[in-house]
């Protein structure tokens, strides 16, 4: 049988994406193979552009193409409430909730000494300085469920409550493990309204 080594390599690359199995990888690889040279050039240059232009906002950790993200520079935003998250892509879902006009902060990772993920790696200290500088009054935690996440939440809560900052978490109307980006804004709005204070 004719061996298509480069094709196999491309399929292997594609299979590394979440929820792309062998069949899907093969289908995408065939599609790429059938694209014109111009289309492929554009595709490659888009990937390159995304990698070079997008970075984390130095203030809040959201992905942005600007020096500082548009949420941090928006003067109409209230800094009283800040939603704390672990994944930049959850912001899109919260930003559709009209009743929320606060700000966001994305930690770089959980704090998990077992996995060599320290407080420094998580960016927690930058977040704590931000809470102080921007006089944030309430931190709403929008993650949780796994052991690592719960450990991170308890560390964050302990520190913030000693500084008299209110810490709450969004209500449990959302199934565990559910990716927030797929939750509709009404459900998310209810989860925010029904948030429970952690003491
Ligand atoms: Zn920002």
Find the count of extended strands (DSSP E, 2+ residues). Answer: 7
DSSP strand content: 5-15%
Helix content: 40-55%
The overall average pLDDT, rounded, is 90
* CA radius of gyration: 20 Å
What is the CATH-assigned architecture of the largest domain?
3-Layer(aba) Sandwich
The span between the termini is: 66 Å
Ligand catalogue: zinc ion
- Contiguous runs where pLDDT drops below 50 for at least 5 residues: none
Along the chain, the helix and strand elements come as HHHEEEHEHHEHEHE
| Tally of structural domains | 2
| Biggest sheet, spatial arrangement of strands | 4-3-5-6-7
Supply the number of helical segments: 8
Main sheet record: 5 strands, mixed
Structural class: alpha/beta
CATH topology assignment of the largest domain: Dna Topoisomerase Vi A Subunit, Chain: A, domain 2
Shape label: elongated
CATH C-level label of the largest domain? Alpha Beta
Would you kindly provide a written description of the structure presented here, covering whatever features stand out?
There is one protein chain. This protein folds into 2 domains: 5-53, Orthogonal Bundle (Helicase, Ruva Protein, domain 3); 63-198, Dna Topoisomerase Vi A Subunit, Chain: A, domain 2 (3-Layer(aba) Sandwich), CATH 3.40.1360.10. The chain is 42% helix and 12% strand. The chain has helices at 5-15, 22-33, 37-53, 91-94, 119-122, 124-133, 147-162, 185-193, and strands at 55-56, 63-64, 81-85, 103-106, 138-141, 166-169, 196-198. Strands 4-3-5-6-7 form a 5-stranded mixed β-sheet, with helices on one face. A two-stranded antiparallel ribbon has the order 1-2. The longest helix has 17 residues, at 37-53. The radius of gyration is 20 Å and the shape is elongated. Zinc ion binds at residues 57, 59-60, 62, 68-69, 71-72.
């Amino acid at each position: 049988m004719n061996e298509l080594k480069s094709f196999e390599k491309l399929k292997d690359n594609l299979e590394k994406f979440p929820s792309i199995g062998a069949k899907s990888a093969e289908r995408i690889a065939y599609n790429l193979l059938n694209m014109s040279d111009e289309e492929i050039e554009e595709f490659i240059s888009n990937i390159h552009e995304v990698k070079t232009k997008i970075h984390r906002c130095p203030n809040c950790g959201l992905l942005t193409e600007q020096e500082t993200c548009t949420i941090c520079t928006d003067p109409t935003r209230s800094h009283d409430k800040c939603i704390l998250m672990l994944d930049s892509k959850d912001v899109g879902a919260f930003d559709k909730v009209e009743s929320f006009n606060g700000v966001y902060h994305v930690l770089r990772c959980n704090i998990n000494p077992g996995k060599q993920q320290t407080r420094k790696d998580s960016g927690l200290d930058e977040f704590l300085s931000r809470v102080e500088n921007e006089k944030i009054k309430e931190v709403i935690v929008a993650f949780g469920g796994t052991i690592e996440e719960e450990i991170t939440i308890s560390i964050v809560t302990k520190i913030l409550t000693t500084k008299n900052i209110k810490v709450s978490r969004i209500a449990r109307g959302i199934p565990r493990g559910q990716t927030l980006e797929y939750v509709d804004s009404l459900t998310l709005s209810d989860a925010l309204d029904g948030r429970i204070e952690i003491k």
